[in-house]
Amino acid sequence: MKHSAEDVPLSMAKARVYKSGHRFERREPIDLRPGPHLFVDDFLIESSANIERVVNVPRRDASVPNPIVTGKEDGCFQPYMTILRDGQTGRFRLWYGHHTEDFNAGRSRLGYLESNDGIHWIRPSRVLDSPVPIQFGVSVIDKGEDFPHPERRYAFGWYMDGGLKVASSPDGFAWTPISAQPVVYHNHDINGIFFDVLRKRYVATVSVYRPGETWSGNRRITMQSHSTDLISWSTPHHVVVPDPTVDDGETQFYAMDGYLRRGDLIIGMVKVLRDDLKADDPPDPPEAYGIGYTTLAWTRDGDTWTRDATPFFSPNPEKGMWDHAHAWIDDQLPVGDEVFLYYGGYARGHKVNRFEERQIGLVRMKKDRYVSRKAGPGIGRILTPLLTLHGGSLTVNADAHGGSLRAQVLDENRHPVPGFTLEDCRPVTTDALAAPITWKRSLGKLRTKPVRLEFVLQNAAIFGFELRNRE
């Protein structure tokens, strides 16, 4: 007898919503390894004063020829996608949901494009041979050139026959199913897979449609399952669930995808659906309904996810634009000092003219600038919990071009450490992704010693900091 994800008892234990002041269960001192450490939540904030948390909304850029993948020219039907960059050629590779020859609303195919810059795509597009029939879904993993089984270097996940199906490929073009049956059963037709490099396991994100005690009717909610071989999977658990204290109306969570590791965090993108709302009043056409926007989510342990109730990316407010009804980010790709955010846009509503009005666009943002902690004219302070710094130097991702930012190191008793005080710190007064924090002494002298960091800001914003090995 098969068991389906929607039959798992509903639990909020691993599905959280960000709320300021949440108390973390953490062992101190916290070991901080080299790499970026972001202030998306309060995990690295013991206390703060005169500081505002600001979600950094990506801005549309007229220089990007959106939509970059179209319904008419490129056959985009379901704007679920994967964008990878080839390590040898540097080319961007895009897989997306292409319509079938007979425009079957319940089936799709794999469309494929390449680009030299991730913005302008080389046409015509290709339609790849499908491993078996595909309902929806375009989730591709590249295991890398060093993967010991090159014939299975790529993995592809999609929805069909009541659940997640997976295929493998040596090149991302020709696919072979690894199982005749779904590997995870679930009743809503959206899913995806990614590889968690921190925990060395695959993660399936699956959508289910089910009732709940705190909402009326059925809602789409999000679950995850883990595997080490893409065949055997753990019992799915809930990671994104409606919360009546913060979610208005008929809030549903269509999917979560676009995962990107940043230090000890994995950042995901949640597709929020409001079918009880309309893009325009009166709607065009009269039966049009549904808007969709994107919120942030993140995990520190790979199991428990926290989502932000504040929208991260919303539909274009201008009527008649191609992304006026929906703006669902589906993939993130670091490119130089930026992150490319690829999203699906709908023009007028959830089910309107789906073969032409569901298309793919791009917005860009500076690396790691999802959320800032901002101070105005008054002095703002951020104090971390007790930390062990496994690094020789420190940089900050901050915008202090109209003000200043300094930092100091405090000992276990919260006393400034000589040589690392505010007076010893050279102020940061620029807008930079990696502005050095320099004191009279080298931070490497404090390796393995329990300390706190205190950041002091005025007319400035900090997004995070980075520990580096070198002094």
Task: Report on the architecture of this protein.
This protein has 471 residues and is mostly beta strands. The strands form 7 sheets. Strands 2, 4, 27, 28, 30 and 32 form a 6-stranded mixed beta sheet that branches. Strands 3, 5, 26, 29, 31 and 33 form a 6-stranded antiparallel beta sheet that branches. The chain starts with 14 loop residues before the first strand and ends with a strand. A hairpin with a 4-residue loop joins strand 15 (191-196) and strand 16. It is 0% helix and 48% strand. It folds into 2 domains: 24-56 and 371-468, Jelly Rolls, CATH 2.60.120; 76-366, 5 Propeller (Tachylectin-2, Chain A), CATH 2.115.10. The model has no long low-confidence stretch (mean pLDDT 96).
Cα distance, first to last residue?
Answer: 59 Å
Extract low-pLDDT stretches.
none
CATH superfamily grouping of the largest domain: Glycosyl hydrolase domain, family 43
CATH topology-level fold name of the largest domain: Tachylectin-2, Chain A
Count of individual helical segments: 0
Count of extended strands? 33
Q: How would you state the average pLDDT, rounded?
A: 96
Q: Give a quick account of the main beta sheet: strands, pairing sense, barrel closure.
A: 6 strands, mixed
CATH class term of the largest domain: Mainly Beta
